[in-house]
Amino acid sequence: MATTYTWSIDSMSTLPQVNGFTDVVVLCKWLCVGVDGQTSVTTEDFTKITFNSSNPDYIPYSQLTEQKVLEWVFASLGADGVSSIEQSIQGQINSILTPLVSASAQPLPWAGA
């Protein structure tokens, strides 16, 4: 079964005003949940959102959508960052589904009992 990843925004922090724009989002707490069958792993972190007032992607806070904020998070993380997070989750899922077998020391058969 293939792992599916669901990203969501848990919280956001704003500055009251930046260059005349109000309630500017500057920090997002996100969650990424990977699910493979009955197994799931959740990772969460914070991403700084850089506001560029000369080319603002400004949307009034009350009109923001989760999808728009996730676009900002993905842009900040970059494709490699998003891929790295999802690969880390996949590695954790793999460890749960197929635990590593540890070698154990055995007495030498020729040493006698």
Percent strand: 35-45%
Going across the biggest sheet, name each strand in turn. Answer: 1-2-3
Unreliable residue runs: none
> What class do helices, strands and sheet pairing give?
alpha+beta
How many β-strand stretches? Answer: 3
Proportion of residues in helical segments: 25-40%
Tally of domains: 1
Question: What can you see in these coordinates?
Answer:
Strands 1-2-3 form a three-stranded antiparallel beta sheet. The chain has one domain (4-95). The chain has one helix spanning 66-97; strands at 4-18, 21-36, 39-48. It is of the alpha+beta class and 113 residues long. The model has no long low-confidence stretch (mean pLDDT 92). 28% of the residues lie in helices and 36% in strands. 7% of the residues are buried.
In short:
The protein is α+β, with helices and mostly antiparallel strands and about 110 residues long.
Provide tags for this entry.
alpha+beta; three-stranded antiparallel β-sheet; 1 helix; 36% strand
